[in-house]
Amino acid sequence: MFVLITAFADDANNFPVKGKPLNTDLSTLFSGSGNCITCHHSTENANTSKTYGSVSPVDLWQATMMANSARDPLWQAKVSTEVAKFPQHKELIEDTCTKCHAPMGRTQKVYDDSLAQYSLEEMNTDGLALDGVSCTACHQIKDELLGTGQSYNGNYVIGDDKLIYGPYVPEYPHHMQIFTGYFPEFGKHATESEMCATCHTLITETLDDDGNVIGEFFEQVSYIEWKNSIFEDENIECQDCHMPALVEPIRMSSTPPFIPERDTVNLHELVGANTFMLQLLKDNSDELGTTFTDEAMDSTIKRTEEMLIEQTLEVDVTSNIVNDSLIVEVELLNKCGHKFPTGYPARRSWINLAVHHHDNVIFESGEYDADGRILDEDETYEKHYDQITNDGQVQIYEQVMGDVNTDVTYTLLKAFDQLKDNRLTPIGFTTSDETYDTVAVKGRAAADPNFNFSNGIEGSGSDAVTYKISLNGATDNLLVDVKVIYQSINPRFADDLFSFETEAVNRFKPMYDKADKTPFVMFDTSITASITSVAANEGLPDNFILHQNYPNPFNPSTTISYSIPVDAPRGVERQNVLLKVYDILGNEVATLINEPQAPGKYSVKWLVQNYPSGVYYYTLLVGSNQLTKKMLLLK
After folding, report:
1. Over the range 252-266, which residues count as b (16 or more CB within 10 Å of their CB) and which as e?
2. CB–CB of 429/632 below 8 Å?
3. Chain segment 466-511, per-residue pLDDT in tens
4. What angle do CA 427, 428, 429 make, to 5 degrees?
5. Three-state secondary structure call for residue 390
């Protein structure tokens, strides 16, 4: 399945033809990205889209975290603190970490000497290593043991036969071989999540204070989270979101000039959610010796922000007045094929909800300062909430590592278990799946009936949080402002990092201190809760509301409820209501309502007949008001 790209000329990527010099080193196994761009650069007739701009794999890749994985100053600093904690394991720690952050340098070293271990000192003087997760690293991974535990922790297999695997059957394979020494072959595994799993499934050993192994810890398991989701069943791979398809005839090599066009191009965008580190890399480009151009990094940051805003969450906010309290429900639906936030355990997301009465803030949960510190956060860690009743409580989605004594730890090699993991699960995530022990929900969220459950049915991929707020004597309208915040580095994680004195920490700290640490706002909306309208209109709704269908997931039928408010245009008692259902590709599959309706509350049942399992969207359109929600059909 492809995730289609819609682009416009105004937003096209227009990278300079010549930027900073890319690496052109060669070794027995590898070739730097600067050699690949010789044929895969953007020209008028190749690697260029009329709507998207440059689709050169190297242009798009050069400013990603993957391209800069070895230079990443946060990663280097964190590795140094793990070594400082367990100096007797220095060689093993650095060799293990460079498998994925500096794959070309480390793999070449082990190829030359199978008993060798690779160090950060070697990496920082090795041009191929500093080329990050580069072209000839990923494209040489063989379809051996992929998707099994033997391939995790960077245990990919790269041979010395110089075979390059890609998603197409090459028409002129000897041309690449003549110019580069590499021979291209079709490799379906290059489009499958199992290849990504080699580095995005990290299981670390747990050490006691003396450095003895006492267990293991599932530090990053994005692939296993994906296995426990509907995305695997629907054949939606990692690459479909992180390397989306552009459907447009494009020639992907400048030579030979007669090479045919491809109908579909998978873009090497490779973005996730880490806007903070991308900006930090740009701000410290000279010191870090990066090779990306500013234009390329600006483009990567923009795409990362778009992914966070458009492809990560759906948020629904509703309010009601009950006796002397304002009741606000915030429902978050995870659209990712893995938990959110995912990956490195320094990341977190939270809800910031503020209630305004005239010019006064009468309630605020999740308030934060310019450094991204949440005010009034629990001294140890904030628990998960199903209902929030005071502004000292805040819903934070995160994983909190605990050591063998169940104390919070930020040292990866001391992590024994998750004290809390209430990160939003993907749709289709269940406790009965064989992967669950690896990716379990931990803490209070495991007993929350509204976490990954909708109307008692597991696998919703959502969480509904209810806020019960005293009106404090307010007698007219209240403004409810709701934000969802994302943060790459928890300030407490940074505090722990900076408690160590290492060369890499001392190098990173000034970069961090001068960086803009304002967290990223993924979602921001305001709704008005009218106190007087409740009595004046005898309970009629004062907001357009489209409720989550029930049941969800469903089969063979589900009910969709919605409300038409009393604030219709003057003189209009009935408005035309249109309620339609679409599949995940945007194709209309059903029209449930198309008629004028008066203000009130309505529901309609959709009886599914010959539709396949999968995600569907239903949209309510009344005048200029449009609301959309997602539902899941499971057969």
Report:
1. bbbeeeebeebeebb
2. no
3. 999 998 777 778 999 999 999 999 999 999 999 999 999 999 999 9
4. 95
5. coil
Tell me the pairing of strands 245-250 and 213-221: unpaired
* 154/618 Cα distance (integer angstroms): 41
β pairing state of 201-207 and 625-633: unpaired
- If you average pLDDT over residues 362-383, what whole number do you get? 96
CA atoms of 395 and 382, how far apart (whole Å): 8
Statement: residue 575 has pLDDT above 90: no
Give the three-class secondary structure for 82: helix
Q: What is the pLDDT confidence band of residue 529, given thresholds at 50, 70 and 90?
A: confident
- Helix (H/G/I), strand (E/B), else coil: 418: strand
Q: How far is CA 329 from CA 421, 478, 547, 563, in A?
A: 22, 15, 11, 16
**8 A C-beta contact, residue 136 and residue 164:** yes
Give this prediction's pTM. 0.85
- The dihedral through the CA atoms of 19, 25, 29, 35 has a sign that is positive
What mean pLDDT do residues 16-30 have? 82
What is the CATH number that goes with domain 539-633? 2.60.40.2550
Percent of all residues in the chain with a pLDDT value above 90, rounded to a whole number: 77
Question: In the chain, what is the straight-line distance between the N-terminal and C-terminal CA atoms, in Å?
Answer: 20
The torsion of the CA quartet 285, 290, 293, 294, rounded to 10 degrees, works out to: -20
Map residue 124 onto helix, strand or coil: coil
For residue 628, what pLDDT band results from cuts at 50, 70 and 90?
very high
How far is residue 533's CA from residue 183's CA, in Å, rounded to a whole number? 72
Q: How is the chain split into domains, by residue range?
A: 23-272+274-309, 312-534, 539-633
**How much is the average pLDDT of 70-75?**
98
Residue with tokens 């089969």: 555
Q: Which amino acid, 440?
A: A
Q: Which residue has the higher pLDDT, 425 or 559?
A: 425
Residue at token pair 């045919």: 260
Radius of gyration of the chain (CA): 26
Mean pLDDT (the chain, rounded): 91
CA 186 to centroid of chain Cα atoms: 29
